[in-house]
Specification:
alpha/beta; 5 helices; 4 strands; globular
């Protein structure tokens, strides 16, 4: 993930239409949420916003848990947790909020009244209204953090 993040950024930075002084935003859905967290700490001076939508494995008991390393990033975060994920791991939202606060990072962590998979159109839990709302939140975060 770190190598890919650096390679993608180097590629984009090589394009003449890319403003290399601008921030980058990452959006991860499900396991992609953990990848977005890892990407943010791999390029803290470039990645300015992270949206993790019904993320998997962003707050675990392992010492490699992405939430334990947010202090290595400088990004603003949006984390939307699906209702059943919160029911299964109710302490995750508090662990995330604490990690962001301890790192002095701007973050929104919320539980969405939708099922895990609500962002994925062909998933049985797909919830178009919740998915649209998450995209609006992510776009708002990017609009604010990537100026």
């Amino acid at each position: 993930i770190v190598a890919d993040t650096r390679a993608y950024t180097a590629f984009l930075d090589g394009l003449p239409q890319v403003d290399r002084k601008a921030g980058i935003g990452t959006l991860g859905v499900d396991i992609g949420g953990a990848h977005a967290f890892i990407a943010a700490r791999s390029l803290p001076d470039r990645i300015k916003a992270v949206a993790a939508i019904h993320p998997l494995a962003v707050a675990t008991s392992r010492d490699t848990s992405p939430h334990l390393h947010v202090d290595r990033s400088k990004a603003a975060y949006l984390v939307t947790i699906a209702r059943p994920d919160d029911e299964r791991e109710p302490g995750d939202k508090d662990d995330l909020r604490s990690a962001f606060a301890n790192a002095g990072l701007e973050a929104t962590v919320e539980v969405v009244p939708a099922g895990h998979g609500y962002m994925i159109a062909d998933d049985p839990a797909h919830d178009a209204a919740a998915a649209d709302a998450a995209f609006v939140q992510a776009n708002t975060l990017f609009g604010q953090a990537l100026r």
